[in-house]
Design goal:
- The chain contains 3 helices and 12 strands, in the order ααβββββββββββαβ.
- It is α/β, with parallel strands linked by helices.
- The strands form 2 sheets. Strands 1, 2, 3, 5, 6, 8 and 10 form a 7-stranded mixed sheet that branches. Strands 4-7-9-11-12 form a 5-stranded parallel sheet, with helices on one face.
- It is elongated, with a radius of gyration of 20 Å.
Amino acid sequence: MKSNFYDNKLIKIVICFILIIFVIGLLLNRLYICKFINQNDNENNNIDSSYNVTVDGLYNYYVCDNNSAKEIYITKYNGEEKSVIIPNMIDDVVVTQIGDSCFTLNDEIVSVQIPNTITHIGTCAFAGCKNLKSVTIPDSVKTIDPYVFVDSDNVTIYSFENSFAINYAKEYSIKYNLKKIN
């Protein structure tokens, strides 16, 4: 009888161990996807490799020519601010995109305000930001790639009713609050 008891207990322990390893593997895989995307940023976003990354204090970015108008594509946030307000312009050039993995694994940021010049948020842009509580996304954002908020479990998206951002939040079961139109 005792042998049977110990056999059952051993089986339960082995099953629990396997489940724990499986869950850890899933979490690491999600972050690996974001790291891989960050390493292949140029290829994933069709950015000509001839563009040079500019490092300007708080941001790394590309200046791209888009139909004879220059645009800035932010690739990395270098700051340590808790509340980040992304600029609508850098050096008199409009900022239009937040790149893949731009803020990934940044444990400093608590809130981010995105300007109404941004039209695209890249894959894993805010992945693994454990302390991120709020991101304000304007109506101008028309595309948000997958995994933008993966492992940023405390985030709430603030945007307008029927906006792309609110629909994204609903689709991916992310908390959201509606902003009022002034």
